[in-house]
Structure to design on (367 residues):
């Protein structure tokens, strides 16, 4: 019998979930306020705000299970849907990840290393927090904010002036600045019966606060530590679905940055590069199906494309290159698609990635 999955949010993540659901004979229905939402080509769409509980009730009435694609969805919407049908990840996971203070406090309870932190609700509280934590430090909004938004690096005492106002006079958190070696993410999936699978640890590279490159690292020495930390969080939250846990690496140890309670940009490589993609495993988990194999196939790297569309024909002439178009209008800093580069071995992959990057640079008019 055909099932229907309700997805709150109809952006590129919802689009890729729908593409993964189709071979499983699962149709999708979306709730999103944008009439031109890019996932709407792959399922029916209810046009309504994310906090519209009446629309959420309608969505639940049309679906057998539900999920969401990003953290801007209010936990109350997920909780309302969960009163009628299974809705995963649970509202508690969304509420915790949306608030950096709640998130970091959970890490502390679970003995997962984090930078020094302090709550900041006023300019005077910021001054006191800096006296305790020191500089440099990063001031962040407790809720919302992604791709480098909603935060400010404080390096000198003068940077404190009007910092709270600059970030909107909203609840904030101050975190000690970490001089890390690199940024890693661990993408994992958990089923309702507790089955847990973890993809290879991913090395990430950012440009201007936006993820640019992700590459899985076979047999990384910290794979076991990362998987243990993710599993602790998933069990604490009784989590179902895919989660990404972002870490800072300092030598031979990990420090927690944040979790994303959803499929994640750093896991897009799994579409071509893993036995079962993060999107298919998320759909399997939230719909009560057995999880798929998460083994990496060959060598693979993912490159984000943002700002303007690339020379698609030029990219697709390159061996091992796969283009994913999100059907979005160009805008500075906006993710328009991604490129996955695959090869049988790391040496060939390096050559192919360099060719793809050169194609992207040429398209942007960069020598």
């Amino acid at each position: 019998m055909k099932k229907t999955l309700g997805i709150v949010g109809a952006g590129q993540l919802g689009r890729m979930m729908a593409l993964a659901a189709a071979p499983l004979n699962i149709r999708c229905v979306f709730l999103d306020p944008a009439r031109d939402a890019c996932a709407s080509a792959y399922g029916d769409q209810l046009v309504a705000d994310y906090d519209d509980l009446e629309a959420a009730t309608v969505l639940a009435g049309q679906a057998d299970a539900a999920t969401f694609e990003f953290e801007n969805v209010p936990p109350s919407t997920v909780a309302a849907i969960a009163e009628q049908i299974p809705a995963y990840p649970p509202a508690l996971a969304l509420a915790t990840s949306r608030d950096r203070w709640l998130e970091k406090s959970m890490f502390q309870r679970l003995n997962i290393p984090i930078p020094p932190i302090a709550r900041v609700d006023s300019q005077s509280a910021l001054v006191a927090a800096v006296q305790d934590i020191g500089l440099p430090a990063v001031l962040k909004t407790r809720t919302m904010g992604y791709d480098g938004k909603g935060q400010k690096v404080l390096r000198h005492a003068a940077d404190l002036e009007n910092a709270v106002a600059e970030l909107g006079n909203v609840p904030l958190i101050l975190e000690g600045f970490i001089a890390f070696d690199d940024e890693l993410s661990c993408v994992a999936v958990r089923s309702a019966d507790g089955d847990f699978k973890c993809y290879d640890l991913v090395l990430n590279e950012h440009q201007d606060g936006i993820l640019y490159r992700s590459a899985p690292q076979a047999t990384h020495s910290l794979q076991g530590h990362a998987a243990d930390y993710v599993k602790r969080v998933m069990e604490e939250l009784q989590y179902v679905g895919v989660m990404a846990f972002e870490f800072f690496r300092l030598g031979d140890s990990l420090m927690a940055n944040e979790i994303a309670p959803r499929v994640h940009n750093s896991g897009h490589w799994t579409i071509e590069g893993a036995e079962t993609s993060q999107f298919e495993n998320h759909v399997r988990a939230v719909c009560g199906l057995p999880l798929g194999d998460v083994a990496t196939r060959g060598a693979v790297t993912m490159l984000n494309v943002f700002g303007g569309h690339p020379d698609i024909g030029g990219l697709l002439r390159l061996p091992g290159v796969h283009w994913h178009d999100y059907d979005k209008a160009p805008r500075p800093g906006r993710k328009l698609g991604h490129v996955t580069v695959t090869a049988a071995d790391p040496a060939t992959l390096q050559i192919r990635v360099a060719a793809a990057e050169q194609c992207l640079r040429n398209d942007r008019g960069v020598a």
